[in-house]
TrEMBL record:
Main subcellular location: membrane
Keyword Transmembrane: yes
UniProt membrane topology term: Multi-pass membrane protein
UniProt-annotated location(s): Membrane
Highest taxon, organism lineage: Bacteria
A GO CC term assigned to this protein in UniProt: membrane
Record has Membrane as a keyword: yes
Annotated keywords: Membrane, Transmembrane, Transmembrane helix
Name the UniProt record assigns to this protein: Voltage-gated chloride channel protein
Spans traversing the lipid bilayer: 12-31, 51-70, 146-171, 183-203, 224-245, 257-275, 296-316, 322-341
Amino acid sequence: MVKKLKDNQDYSYGALLKVIGASFIIGILVGCVDTVFGRVLLLLSAFRVGHFNYLIPFLGLVGLMIVFFYQKADVRASKGMGLVFEVGQGKEKEIPLVMLPLVTVATWLTHLFGGSAGREGVAVQLGATISHAFSKFFSFENSSRIFLVTGMAAGFAGLFQTPLAAVFFALEILVLGKLQLPALVPMTIASFVASATSHALGLEKFSHFVNVSLPLNASVFCRLALLGLIFGLVGNAFAALLAYAKQKAKEVMDNPYYRILFGGILLSLIFLMLYHGRYSGLGTNLIEASFSGKDIYFYDWLLKLLLTVATLAVGFQGGEVTPLFAIGASLGVVLANIFGLPIEFVAAAGYISVFGSATNTFLAPIFIGGEVFGFVNLPYFALVMIFAYSLNRKYSIYTGQEVLTF
């Protein structure tokens, strides 16, 4: 008989061994699914770039297909990340397995035809769906939440191959101010296994070593603090604008078919006029330009922000994190010369802190900085994140996130 497990208790040895075994399996499964999702997405994105003028006119029509798929599937699946949060908070009991193909295909279509969206939300949903299905085989208390956050961590790690950051992301994300510590061991194992699996299967990881040595004197401290506040404001603005735009879009056009059709047509025209798709897709082109010395326009970050919000607000599918990385990195390039700091360093600081501010996470972005740009930069990243995180955290891209009151 497995000992019951409460939030303030440890695993029994028997429960721990069983959960560890399940975590290995979850990590392998999620790593494989993330690899298929991620590699196909990259292929479709490359195909879009080569055939942009032929694909972008159909963005609105493809949107109709996406809405149709969601209308015909389990109504719970339409909540997306919201459903994951509801299960974690005990408001819903399960995640329908139909979410796996539904969110995957809808996101592929969004990217193939030029929408501006991310991919992490999909990976987290995939990981959560797969992992949560394991909870029915365990009888200890809180098994539902433990396996949910384990899957969230594995999904994030398998896609980005930043397993430490994935662990802290899943620890922080459900309830602001409360870490999901009972799941620490299984989510760590699942994250590292998922990351290793996707890497072994050939999924690409973005990394760029940034080598700076800044004296932490009063001048540098003040500049890092001010950068953190600016990046924090931008992340908060993204989250607030996304919530407002989704609500306003429904008020203006309540019918989801009309909303995504006409919104898609308008977006296709905008994407076509603005440098033939510079702001379509994930935003990895802006990230690559930010760290390779290529042209970054002073308005790149703002247009990527507005067009990602518009894409998601009218009903297209995908995550927000990679566009947030692109927004932060391109804004960092603009701010670097103003603040008299190395361009690559400020771009890296923006990359992590705009994401952190928009998701109300503190530890996860710092470790993303370490795993992507080098752990030697952790003291600087921590200072930037302290001030980015200090701002009003009323808004989050995850509207289901709860705040622990003290």
